[in-house]
Write a structure and sequence with these properties.
- By secondary structure, the chain is mainly β.
- It has two helices and nine strands, in the order H-H-E-E-E-E-E-E-E-E-E.
- It has an eight-stranded antiparallel β-barrel with strand order 1-2-3-4-5-7-8-9.
- The relative contact order is 0.20.
Length: about 170
């Protein structure tokens, strides 16, 4: 999906199967942030909810309806990433860790690097740790931000490459 197609889809208000309809955009998707103030403002907004995704080959595409995905900035260096199920035997998957925000060395986009320090899953009413995720690094490339909408761009397989392998995850401020 091209940035133009994504912009058209978001402007039309169609939010896909992740959540409720998204508000229309007033400006088109751009490929960079205005300045470093925009990057700092991402973390100043405490919670971002995933409302739309074009990912087809990941966990996001396999989520049941009404599932919520949240990215929550707790302090200037820590965050929580949660997948919350509404009607399921698995109640949630939660991770916490440390993060840094900076600029990509390849593009001018803002990059979020976070490292899991704790991960767990709640099955029925039991909290179970996921120690295999501890220390895992993740990178999120943000390609658009306007204070209310945050767009992540990634590539299938994690390797930056062909545009047809690109996907977008759109978050709104909670």
């Amino acid at each position: 999906m091209s940035e133009e197609q994504l912009s058209t889809l978001l402007i039309s208000g169609n939010s896909g199967s992740i959540s409720s309809p998204s508000p229309p955009l007033t400006k088109p998707i751009t490929t960079s942030f205005n300045d470093d103030t925009d990057a700092a403002n991402i973390a100043n907004a405490p919670c971002w909810n995933l409302i739309f995704s074009t990912e087809t080959k990941s966990l996001i595409s396999a989520l049941p309806p009404l599932t919520r995905v949240k990215l929550k900035f707790l302090t200037p260096t820590t965050l929580d990433y949660s997948i919350i199920f509404t009607e399921n035997w698995m109640k949630n998957i939660r991770t916490s860790g440390t993060y840094t925000l900076g600029r990509s060395k390849v593009s001018d986009d803002v990059i979020l690097e976070f490292i899991y320090s704790k991960a767990g899953v709640k099955l029925f009413s039991f909290d179970l740790p996921l120690p295999m995720l501890k220390g895992t690094k993740n990178y999120v490339l943000f390609s658009y931000f306007d204070g209310k909408l945050l767009v992540e761009k990634g590539w299938t397989g994690g390797v930056r490459g062909l545009e047809e392998d690109a996907f977008y995850n759109c978050y709104i401020f909670d």
